[in-house]
Amino acid sequence: MGKTLGDFEQMILFALVALGEDAYGASIRREIVGRTGRDVSAGAVYTVLDRLERNGLVVSRVGEPTAERGGRRKKHYQLRADGAQRLRETRERMARMEDGLLDELTRLAEEGA
Amino acid sequence: MTNHRPPRWGSWLLGRVMGAEDAEFVLGDLEEEFKERCAEDGPTRARRWYRTQVFGSARAHLSAPLRGGLWGHDLRYAARRLRRAPGFTALAVGTLGLGIGGAVTIGTLAWSVLRPLPYPEPEALVAVWETRGGVQRGVAPANYLDWRRMNAGFDGLAAHLVGTVAVTHGEAATLERVATVSGNFFEVVGAPALRGRTFDPTLNPAFAEREMVLAEPAAGRLFGTPSAAVGQSLRVDDLTYSIVGVAPARFAFPDEGLFGWVRSPTEAPEIRNLPPDFSLTELRDAWYFEVVGRVGPGETVASGRADLEGVAARLAETYPDTNRESGVLVVPLLEQTVADFDRILLALALAVALVLCAAWFNVVHLTRAVAEGRRLDAAVRISLGASRGSLARAYGLEGWLIGLAAGSVGLLLAYLAIDLSTSALLESVPRSDEIAVGPEAWGAALLLGVVAGAIVGRVGLAVVTPKASLRARMVRGGRGRGLIAAQVAVSIAVLTGTVLLGRSFTELGRVDLGFATESLVTMRVSLPDAPSLAYEERLLRYAEVERAVSILPGVESSTVGAELPLDMGMGAGVRIDGIQTSEDPPNSGWQPVAADYFETMGMTLRSGRAFSEADGRGSTDVAIVNEAFARDVLEGRDPLGATVTMGLDGHDRPLTIVGIVADTRTRGPSEPAGPVLYRPIDQTVRYGAGSMVLAARVTGGIDMAAVRAAVRGAAPEMPVSQAATGSELIRPFRANQSMLLTIMAVFATVALSIGLVGVYGVGTHSVRRARREIGVRLALGATGGRMTREIIRTGMRSAVLGVPFGLALAWGVGRGVRDLLFTVSPTDPASMALVVLVVLSLTASAFWAPARRAAKIDPAASIRDG
Predict the structure, then answer these.
(1) Can you give the pTM of this predicted structure?
(2) Of A24, A43, A73, the CB nearest to B24
(3) Which of B5, B33, B61 sits opposite A26 (nearest CB)?
(4) ipTM of the complex in this document
């Protein structure tokens, strides 16, 4: 069993699941912003993607330069099986942890005890 | 879609922080989204969004856990910055590399000349000499034996004597240099055998078998391996020796390139070919031996010397006739071996230090110039939260990379330079083919590189981080002016040394040797069985060989003689007209020569006649003397017709002088001629004639192989050695000079190159700083040519400041090499003037390129950009 993934890492991996073939820096960022409302910087997305790639959870390939990007190239990302498995493990661990506790959690949050 | 574009500073900033590759994808994403946002929210909000994104991305990049850990990340960053400034990188690596390469090359050459004696406790070893009226002599056999018996300060005193002998192995005989040594020789020097054993001093020499120790290369040559040689036997002249051991190749005492060491059957080294009525061990006034001693435990060189002086004083009382004026001279062996090289080494070490300093100064200056351009970059990084530590790491690593690269370049240069200089030295310096860049050199190069790199890193950091203001001020002190002056000074000093040595070397080659070297062939031939032949028989054998050579096509004349005109060592006391001029008769060289010796050697007859076939046994004993003999021995009296006696070979019949020949440089080309008396070989009675010089004067090209073949045909048993053309004879005498000249030439090239690079760097840097001023002047109508001249003139003012310092240093260098200079004054004004001229012109030319660039500055652009 691998190391548990951080929040931001999980978000990015889920974005890859959602985007499939269309995943690259900007689309990933937008997916995260769109789903969570959390505004993250493009640099931060790449920093994490970089780390995930080094850990063998994602792969990247460099595309062709396009005009709307000011003649710059895109870097596409794809989830690897290892990454998918690790994400699932992390989620399952979390689910086991919260199993039967959500009701109590809601009560505590509302009562403010 | 609108045609709004994101602000350019974003791409500049991210490019700087992340590096171009990583920034590309981020910037692409941002531009794409920026355009969308412009369309949806308008350009103002899109710009605000963009700004937040750029700063956020930069901060995220800087604060992220780093790829490959801190160092890996910083290493990549450092490498990237070096790639981005290829000019700086190349200059820094090149300059430091040159300095390190020069230092390593000189260190390697010097080390090979001066490597410490490879014996245990070398500081206890001394060379011992006799003195006679204050003049250094060898040691007389009887005195040596008494010293051994009577001294209390030495563990041992060993005598040795190197000679050329004929060694026969199977059918082939060769002439080899062999040391005849006392039985305790290896014990005293402290050298163990590589295979087998050395001589056992406890064995009674009178009963010991004749034993020999071979040198490793000789053993390899004759028997394949050192082990195979042990237990074999060899004929040395007419005696058989059994090989008891092999000495390692690095054991080179008392001389390099010895074939082996033979032990005498007596306590003192044996001298063969002496007249039978000579009792070697009773001689107190013939200084045959050289002696090496090891001072005893608890003793010092000084106490050993005092002890031996006491012994010499007692001997002087016992044998007043021979030992009255006799004293001892005890010299540490290291000092004797290295002679005046220690001073030269010191001078070289100093020079190496100067060149290295010059290289470092240059690079520091360069770093400063480049770092000034990077202040902005550093400021951006710091304001975005990069720690001082990370900057320090980045600059430190950058310095390291430069240092390592420079160390490698230096090593490469050292390999090249050593290769070049050894091939140049091969012919004149023994074992120069073994000079190689060793592990010490590797260590030194890398160490120098790393230290230099560390300095570069510190300087860079000091310039870009304002906190380090003190250090920054320190490195900023001593501006370009001082740097230029220093480079000029060092260049002048080193180049002067080279020019002096070079001129001296040329002069030495131009000396009138007193004989004609062109078309001359010489070689040494020897008679292995000489001791068993009657004297007349020996001479006949040489005459046969000489005749065989004389009938070769192209041979104009040929001769035999005891020694070559350039290296005459045999001597004896002279009595004139039977009148004893003093207690100690004047000493003169003497040479038995065949009839055509003077003609073949190309020596000039000044007056009287040459020898002829008629000057044989039974006719009047005649002699020919050289001019130095007439001047020094006869003190100006007319030599022709004078009669002298020389008690050389057991007969002291008076010799009538019939001719005077011109002097030859009997002690080598750099020494004045000594007095020499020549006698017809047929009139000598007991000259040893173990080996002789055979010489021929040839027209139409020298065919050495044909001469060798003729000798072999006439006398197959006679080994030939030292075959040389006349012009090659001078080589060994120039060996030291040629070694030092090579070192100095390498050195001068390095110093000059570094100096010029430095001058170029300073010029470029000052032009860049003065860009705006130059632009203004050009805008106000100054012509490009005028600007060029003015910049060169300003630079040259600093250069001229260095000249007096350079001359002072050059004076020191001149004194350092003084003893090696021949007919050239160490403060030769012409050489110095030439050097100053060359250095200043080169400096001016190094300023030329940056000055030209200044003249082409676009005034408008320079004023706008500052």
Answers:
(1) 0.59
(2) A73
(3) B33
(4) 0.86
